[in-house]
Write a structure and sequence with these properties.
The complex is a heterodimer of chains A (about 350) and B (about 325).
Chain A lengths: L1 H5 L8 E14 L2 E14 L3 E5 L6 H8 L8 E10 L2 E2 L5 H7 L4 E4 L3 H4 L6 H12 L4 H14 L5 H5 L8 H13 L5 E5 L7 H17 L3 E6 L2 H7 L2 E6 L2 E7 H6 L4 H8 L48 E5 L2 E4 L14
Parallel strand pairs in A: 3-8, 3-9, 6-7, 7-8
Antiparallel strand pairs in A: 1-2, 1-4, 4-5, 9-10, 10-12, 11-12
Chain B lengths: L4 E16 L4 E17 L3 E5 L6 H8 L7 E6 L2 E2 L5 H10 E4 L13 H11 L5 H14 L16 H13 L5 E5 L7 H18 L2 E6 L2 H7 L2 E6 L2 E7 H6 L4 H9 L38 H5 L5 E4 L2 E3 L6
Parallel strand pairs in B: 3-8, 3-9, 6-7, 7-8
Antiparallel strand pairs in B: 1-2, 1-4, 4-5, 9-10, 10-12, 11-12
The chains are: A alpha/beta (about 350), B alpha/beta (about 325).
């Protein structure tokens, strides 16, 4: 799979994390849910890669699989590798993985409310993480926590340290979560829909913080979202996920201007745009597929406006349609390996 | 009274008493809705925008009398809604319906979809089984559900389909006004568009009016005729859609508009509001927005601005325009 991303390396950046043919399946009583079914991507140092998709497409499980944070059983990584620092995190022993979690690779979850412990103060919770991974005293750890809260633009950080989660607003909790995830200077931050449960004005604040962080630190970000407009704000590269697979990868500006996969085209079209004047929104017919009953061939074919006979039977492979643009669709097979821009 | 006027709300207030301690002493009041006046014409879509906790959902519920207002007047079709009781109230509610945000929790998981829609008709006194059968089929067709889905249960449907069922229930008695409380915020983007299109089709065909409550300005722009912005229990700006988006006056509206990340670049600078929405238990003095306002003046801290018409049909409550 390196060939797919090889051309992009002309920026001369190194790859910090590589996910190779990852398959995370859930073995439930009602059948096997192939939540992640062959995902490949490489994360470069300093970049923000966005995983974009609708609910149930497998974007969150992909992120959880990197640190093996999904429930097991029923979930299991049945195939694939997650290479970080020369080690395969999908196979490594748990004690090793625990050292990576929070320290090298940190995560921010969608719902800060349920990710924070209600019976400890924010200061305690941030300091705990620092003390687990580093040899520091409690006062030092608390000092660290205060600096982090300050960086998050939280007013009166000293006071907030002593607050319990229920005393804080949703936006503040989410910022405290981000502060906590940054407490050990991780190399990779995975943010799973960090702004979905907050208001628009608070969302703008959080996105601003993340943008500043990305520029100010030597950190790579995997940003998971369903919202393409956020991708434009924060992402360097976008990977569109559908039916447990990545169906298109390209730099953000490129993918928004020249989307190739019919699903990406549909996603961009059906956003109500403030500048648009038309009365009727284009929409993608049908619903997201049932993960227990994935359609054969290309998972998008029942909803695809450009469906061909081959799509119903044969699963398409990833093809390069431009230097930095790959897509997984039969429409582009003939362009495979070409350098032309579609 | 103007015959095109469908709903008129005047000075509506809803205070929740906050109690504490053994004797349930009143500790304060949450002013969820604090003096709201608005009107909706027949066939009109009024978008109501605001952040969580601003009182927009409470306002919708009061209009239907699902919550009792503390003060104010509601006039629907020339009828004083506040003093309706019993059968009259039920009859009125047939003409005024609500669609909730979460289709999952608003459908009974143990009732078939056909049964859920039928219930809406039975409640309003339709008992003839042939008529029920026929009307349920018609409603399902109207919202784009196959007739074969009738005997299925809610868990067999996707979010978008469940929301269609909710819409079918709301349409049961041919209402004149539907209060849509964040009807698409729980749906995926690709499905959102389907449901919004359906709502517009129904409006165009049946000529009903919507009070469309949402936090998402881009969705509101898509289907509203007029837009109202609410902040901490009060309406701070109200204008025709075109005027609203071309010439937003209130600093809060400006900030909301700039917070929407649009796919197309525009020249507007981003306005970042600092801090959170203050508690409605203890709203700031003067203009309620002054603690977060980027154009705050000394007068804003003391005197509450009046809701005035600054251009024809464009109302704003801000000291910058008085």
């Amino acid at each position: 799979m390196k060939s797919v991303y090889g051309n992009y390396a002309e920026v001369k950046s190194e790859i910090v994390l590589e996910v190779i043919n990852l398959k995370t399946w859930f073995f439930t009583r009602r059948g096997i849910v192939k939540a992640v079914n062959g995902v490949d991507f490489a994360l470069e140092s300093g970049e923000c890669l966005c995983l974009v998709g609708e609910s149930g497409c497998g974007k969150s499980v992909t992120a959880l699989s990197i640190l093996r944070l999904f429930d097991s059983p029923p979930g299991r990584i049945v195939q694939g590798k997650v290479i970080y620092g020369g080690t395969d995190l999908a196979q490594c022993p748990m004690p090793y993985l625990r050292k990576i979690r929070g320290k090298d690779i940190a995560m921010v979850f969608q719902n800060a409310q349920s990710s924070l412990n209600p019976v400890f103060t924010i200061g305690d919770q941030i300091a705990e993480q620092v003390m687990v991974h580093q040899r520091v005293s409690r006062p030092e750890a608390l000092d660290r926590a205060r600096t982090l809260l300050e960086e998050m633009n939280i007013p009166q950080p000293g006071r907030v340290l002593k607050m319990y989660p229920h005393q804080m607003s949703g936006g503040m909790k989410q910022r405290a979560m981000i502060a906590m995830s940054l407490s050990c200077n991780p190399a990779i931050l995975i943010a799973d829909e960090p702004t979905t449960s907050v208001d628009v004005t608070i969302r703008a604040q959080i996105i601003y913080i993340l943008q500043e962080l990305k520029n100010g630190r030597d950190m790579s970000v995997i940003f998971i979202t369903h919202d393409l407009s956020l991708v434009k704000e924060i992402g360097d590269r976008a990977a569109v996920v559908y039916g447990g697979k990545i169906v298109e990868v390209a730099p953000v500006e490129h993918i928004l201007k020249n989307p190739a996969h019919p699903y990406t085209v549909g996603l961009i079209d059906c956003l109500p745009d403030l500048s648009a004047q038309s009365r009727r929104l284009p929409s993608i017919p049908g619903n997201t597929p049932n993960p227990l009953d994935m359609p054969p061939g290309c998972p998008f074919h029942p909803r695809c406006p450009k469906v061909m006979d081959i799509c119903r039977e044969v699963e398409p492979a990833m093809v390069n349609i431009a230097d930095v643009h790959t897509v997984c669709c039969h429409l582009f097979v003939n362009m495979g390996g070409g350098s032309g821009n579609g | 009274m103007d015959s095109s006027l469908l709903l008129q709300v005047k000075g509506l207030r809803k205070y929740y008493r906050v109690t504490a301690g053994l004797m349930s002493r009143t500790r304060g009041e949450i002013r969820a809705v604090d003096g709201v006046s608005l009107s909706i014409n027949r066939g009109e879509v009024l978008g109501l925008v605001g952040e969580s906790g601003c009182g927009k959902s409470t306002l919708g519920k009061i209009i239907l009398r699902l919550e009792e207002p503390t003060a104010g007047e509601i006039n629907f079709n020339g009828i004083d809604v506040i003093n309706l009781k019993g059968r009259d109230l039920r009859e009125m509610r047939g003409k005024m319906q609500i669609i909730f945000q979460d289709p999952d929790s608003s459908l009974d998981p143990r009732m078939t979809v056909g049964g859920s829609i039928e219930e809406a008709l039975v409640v309003h006194g339709i008992s003839d089984s042939a008529e029920l059968e026929e009307r349920v089929a018609r409603l399902m067709e109207k919202v784009g559900l196959e007739a074969g889905f009738r005997e299925r249960y809610p868990h067999e449907f996707s979010g978008g389909q469940k929301q269609r069922i909710g819409i079918a229930r709301a349409l049961a008695m041919d209402p004149q006004l539907i209060i849509a409380d964040e009807p698409v915020s729980a749906l995926d983007v690709s499905v959102q568009a389907q449901v919004l299109n359906l709502m517009m089709d129904i409006r165009d065909r049946d000529g009903l009016a919507y009070l469309f409550v949402s936090h998402d300005l881009s969705v509101v722009k898509y289907l509203s005729d007029r837009v109202a912005v609410m902040y901490l229990g009060k309406i701070v700006e109200l204008a025709d859609k075109e005027e609203f988006f071309r010439n937003p006056l209130h600093p809060y509206t400006e900030a909301l508009l700039s917070a929407i990340a649009s796919l197309r670049p525009d020249g507007r600078n981003r306005i970042l509001l600092t801090g959170d929405v203050p508690s409605p238990l203890n709203p700031p003095s003067g203009c309620r927005f002054h603690t977060r306002c980027h154009r705050m003046m000394p007068v804003c801290q003391q005197i509450e601005p009046q809701f005035t018409e600054s251009a024809p049909g464009h109302y704003v409550s801000c000291h910058l325009y008085t």
